[in-house]
Amino acid sequence: xxxxxxxxxxxxxxxxxxxxxxxxxxxxxxxxxxxxxxxxxxxxxxxxxxxxxxxxxxxxxxxxxxxxxxxxxxxxxxxxxxxxxxxxxxxxxxxxxxxxxxxxxxxxxxxxxxxxxxxxxxxxxxxxxxxxxxxxxxxxxxxxxxxxxxxxxxxxxxxxxxxxxxxxxxxxxxxxxxxxxxxxxxxxxxxxxxxxxxxxx
Length: 201
Ligand SMILES: [Zn+2]
What we know:
The protein has 10 helices and 3 strands; from the N terminus they run αβββααααααααα.
């Protein structure tokens, strides 16, 4: 654990406890495991809640973020174990993010109602505004576009779409598909029974 000041010690203890709590569970639910010890950097300037890189997880512990740290780390640990696997290499990035959210719901059940209602609301609002097909087009973005996306630029709608599609398909079926080779967004939509204009969502 890397901290930038002693004030972060309490946060560091919480983060370490959450890593212990979810590390094995995330691997079990995902079906892939990476045994290297997780290095976490606490960075109050980080622009997202957290980001998982190949060798470390960078987490912003400021403000409300530390209250949802178990949720954030459950999501990031899915990325940790999935790094380099067919799930990361073969799924559209937005679907890979939806997968991390979907598995995190299993790991931290007390957040399930909160996440489901948020994502249902966001999909409902996009439908009302006639924006579902535009949202689906945006979900074709790659990892590099995703990491540079500001959090107020439809980021949560994309999580909502990814989560909803993964929830329909199921983690096991999605993993089987990814193990067979690259999976296009069109194939994901078909597996979920959703048309390109959002019908069926
Ligand atoms: Zn993520």
